Amino acid sequence: MKTQLKPLLYLIPVSLSFWPPIILAAIIYWQLNGHLLLFIPVFLFIITPILDQIWGNDPQPEPTVEKNSLAHWYFRGLPLFCVPSYCLLICTTPVVINLENLAPIHKLEYIFAVGILGGVIAINVAHELVHRTSLFERSCGGILLSTVTYAGFKVEHIRHHHVYVATPLDPASSYRNQNLYHFVLQGLFKNPMNAFSIEAQRLRKKKLPIWGYHNELIGWYSLSLLICLGYGWTSGWLGILAFISQSFIAAGLLESVNYIEHYGLRRKPKDGSRWEKVKPCHSWNSNVYWSSIYLFQLPRHSDHHEIASKHYFNLQLKENAPQLPHSYPSMVLLAYFPPLWYRVMNPRLDDYFSSNDRETVTTE
User: Fold this and answer.
1) Cα–Cα distance between 295 and 308 in angstroms, integer?
2) Rounded distance between C-alpha atoms, residue 270 and residue 170, angstroms
3) Which of 34, 168, 185, 355 is most buried by its number of CB atoms within 10 A?
4) What distances in angstroms separate CA 285 from CA 126, 200, 268, 289, one per listed residue?
5) What whole-number distance in Å separates Cα of residue 220 and Cα of residue 214?
């Protein structure tokens, strides 16, 4: 079925992805002391799950947006709208740090809020953009990732994660009984290293120098360094620490989402060194309406892995794909408490495996 979606239904929740940076910067610029900055994590981890419960699930398949239609360009443009607004947030952060009338505790809250928004906006939106065929869109994704010093994701996610997802070779696929903190530290270390290795291998095949302008990671990480030095120039060592901290928080939130997306799911080995084809059963999904739209349909993860080039607004619900008991924000929050996570998810894994005649992998 080809028809246009209802743009207004998407505009309201998706717009929340690019308006908070402007609102956040305005609040601080006006020097409204108080703990208003805590609204960002509270909205993400408390208010959003409540809205998910109120709004309910979205079990119906989406109508397909016809290519080059007005709706197609409208929805395709929404992630791009996030780029200038988030860059505005990054540019105004040193100004906030230098505000003399802002208490140190509020500056810390601001940095924490920027880091959370970096995970939700910079990396999540970049994830959508780096999958596009357009050089402009991919470059916008690279810019967003550079603002949180995680440009390796642009390379590693496309050329490694999507190839080795749900196998022991993928550090972005958590195994059963692996706790979140071990997984996040593993990802923060291994994923950038994988990215450099993959890019170096590509350049060697083309007989190009590894440490040159042909290496896109050098360009993107140079941009991160430039932003960091700008923070240092305007705000001293506090500015540099602020930039590094918000980058760490954003990257940590990304890895937390990676943790819940493939927890305990494994592809069957095939012919020794190969694995079965990626299927819907290799990704956890969430059919909650509000979170799905707010996160650019990221919770429809099985369809994304089946056809990685598909636009977020055309992602479909997959029958028989494993379903999380709650929305992504709720499950990320639960994952921060490993005993509770195991208690909720391990029985769900067992039930899914038994009903689909699959084997579970406890450790690597």
Assistant:
1) 16
2) 16
3) 168
4) 20, 34, 20, 12
5) 12
Q: Give 198-223 pLDDT, tens digit per residue.
A: 999 999 998 889 888 889 999 999 99
* Token pair belonging to 295: 């996160």
- Phi, psi angles (nearest 5°) of residue 46: -120, -55
Kindly tell me the burial class for residue 189, based on how many C-beta atoms sit within 10 Å of its own C-beta (0-12, 13-18, 19 or more).
Answer: exposed
Q: What is the DSSP letter of 46?
A: I
DSSP type of residue 157: I
pTM of the predicted protein model: 0.90
Tokens encoding 142: 């690279």
The answer to whether the CB of 79 falls within 8 A of the CB of 128 is yes
User: Hunting for tokens 């020794």 — which residue is that?
Assistant: 272
Structure tokens at 324: 């999380």
Give SS3 for 274.
strand
Check the CA dihedral 327-289-280-142 and report its sign. Answer: negative
Q: Give φ, ψ of 3 to 5 degrees.
A: -155, 170
Name the residue type at position 239. G
